[in-house]
Amino acid sequence: MNQLKNDTFLRALMRQPTDYTPVWMMRQAGRYLPEYRESRKNAGSFLQLCKSPDFATEVTLQPLDRYPLLDASILFSDILTVPDAMGLGLYFAEGEGPKFERTLCEETDIRKLTVPDMASLQYVFDAVSQIRNALDGRVPLIGFSGSPWTLATYMVEGKGGTDFLTIKKMAYARPDLLHRILDITAQAVTAYLNAQIAAGAQAVMIFDSWGGALAHHAYREFSLQYMEKIVAGLTRENEGRIVPRIVFTKGGGLWLEAQAGIGADALGLDWTVDIGEARKRVGDRVALQGNLDPAVLLSTPEAIEKEVAGILASYGHGHGHVFNLGHGITQWTPPANAEAMLAAVRTHSSQYHA
Amino acid sequence: MNQLKNDTFLRALMRQPTDYTPVWMMRQAGRYLPEYRESRKNAGSFLQLCKSPDFATEVTLQPLDRYPLLDASILFSDILTVPDAMGLGLYFAEGEGPKFERTLCEETDIRKLTVPDMASLQYVFDAVSQIRNALDGRVPLIGFSGSPWTLATYMVEGKGGTDFLTIKKMAYARPDLLHRILDITAQAVTAYLNAQIAAGAQAVMIFDSWGGALAHHAYREFSLQYMEKIVAGLTRENEGRIVPRIVFTKGGGLWLEAQAGIGADALGLDWTVDIGEARKRVGDRVALQGNLDPAVLLSTPEAIEKEVAGILASYGHGHGHVFNLGHGITQWTPPANAEAMLAAVRTHSSQYHA
């Protein structure tokens, strides 16, 4: 495979020395970029962008071309490809989030759920290979998946970001059914991420977008436990190099100590946590990725620089920090403000790596 | 004033000895009760329930009549009465949350904002007096308000529960404008709560429903600071008794140590925090109120009892715990399940107060 020219991101995830703090942005290929909006128009829909390796490659590379200061690329895809492959019928209603045509509420349907044939997700693995070729070693490529709990919220509720009452009712009244969904999904995610690694993903990230909605003990039982199983089943090395794993539970800042013990190399942080305090809590067990509030990018270059400098100073001296937003970049971000953030990270971070 | 027959709730808030763990439920007068739905139909709308002292008294008493195990009552009202009195035009669109006709985005409008005349909120204070009379000392009456940050999110965004991008952009780009809104609102809330106390509220609670959306340092600057100012300005004693203050930031479990230092007598907890760990973190500075996930009440009496017992055991021996939900009871709760929760609290809590 092509030689990696910039491995700062991979080194930081393994808490190895780097000259500066590497940076990428969650959802960096997204609607805030005019070139992305153009590609999406050409593809016809968001789902077509995901399902066409050509389009996925095109938009994955766009932020890299615009921002030479980015230290990582991430596969352009959606977390819901896995439940879609399970036959639930993913669709996007205009102006709304993702939805499923069928939901898993009936015991008979839950009993019938199986790990999907990975061949039905070949378009994802083809995209990974094609992106790796197109990158030609510029920066590493991150593969990703949703966590079993997060995928299950969509599978049971039919949509995301609600009060999760249907799935929580199942969690408390019929935990056996929910555990069956989570178990099958964890097996599917493990196979899915390993196939991404085989196709060329050089790091993997598990997005637990809705884990923060759970009670503390329920988080351990219904989300963290399954992420631990996935991590244990992941290919550790490929192309002669360790494939680092990042686990990110949005709203999970109270549970970092537990997250640090599941075998991940790095934890994602949202903006509610002080990254310096987080570092003290997890010690040298994991690297940390984060954690600027994406809303800051709506303000001014001066305010952005101040906030970036504050996060870097809070993390302090030493390695093991990957700078990122605490959640996906919003579509209202002026592209010049994203650039201001990237420049501020580079300018202010060298002093902490001396 | 009428003699208080059950002061368990007030004693627990002050961390004084009680025979059992007192309990009430956020939004206990709500749509899950058929008698409430009947009153709401008779009143014509939610807002009419709030604005009529007769109706407000009627629905405030309903859960007390149904559940003799409740240890507190709470004024039936809405947190948005204050911005409504500021002239923003509160309304409820059918099937949606509260909205405002006018929002505070323009600097000229923000400069014109003033503390409203408390006479425009007389209907609230009348309701407090009338409820106190109707209670006839059965249990204490809690008054409440939204926090300045939470009220400001509605005032600037026009609605709640969004991604808060408009107000956060203001926070980072024009903090001076947001501080002006928060300062005026904090003055209004202080006067509002003091008038509730003068009318008979025996404890007060500040609901910071959206503080958890802020970055850690922004929470201190834009939310906690103003709650501290309010607490410092509250009437401390009335009717010869201390009026305890409860502060509740939903999603604020990471910041309990800071919350414990603002002069509140008790902190509300949502379900993401282990209450035993929270107790260790705040020590003997404050009592704790919480923290069952309201979704548990959608399950079975057996599951409810198990979860209640777990929370009581986690808090452990000693006083200073008020049992509650971690957020408002949902409209889908079977009333018998709420009763199962109340019974479980009484049954399981005595052992910790021996």
What would you say this structure looks like, in words?
Two copies of one chain form a homodimer. With 354 residues, chain A is of the alpha/beta class. Chain A has one domain (8-353): TIM Barrel (Alpha-Beta Barrel). Chain A has helices at residues 8-13, 34-43, 46-51, 53-66, 81-88, 107-112, 122-135, 148-157, 165-173, 175-199, 216-232, 256-259, 275-282, 301-315, 335-349; strands at 73-74, 90-92, 98-100, 141-146, 203-208, 237-238, 241-242, 245-249, 266-268, 287-292, 321-325. In chain A, the strands form three sheets. A seven-stranded parallel sheet of chain A has the order 1-4-5-8-9-10-11. Chain A has a two-stranded antiparallel ribbon with strand order 2-3. Chain A has a two-stranded antiparallel ribbon with strand order 6-7. The longest helix of chain A has 25 residues, at 175-199. At the A-B interface, α9, α11 and α14 of A face α9, α11 and α14 of B.
Give the helix/strand layout:
Two copies of one chain form a homodimer.
Chain A: H1 8-13, H2 34-43, H3 46-51, H4 53-66, E1 73-74, H5 81-88, E2 90-92, E3 98-100, H6 107-112, H7 122-135, E4 141-146, H8 148-157, H9 165-173, H10 175-199, E5 203-208, H11 216-232, E6 237-238, E7 241-242, E8 245-249, H12 256-259, E9 266-268, H13 275-282, E10 287-292, H14 301-315, E11 321-325, H15 335-349
Helix pairs in contact in A: 2-4, 4-7, 7-10, 8-10, 9-10, 10-11, 13-14, 14-15
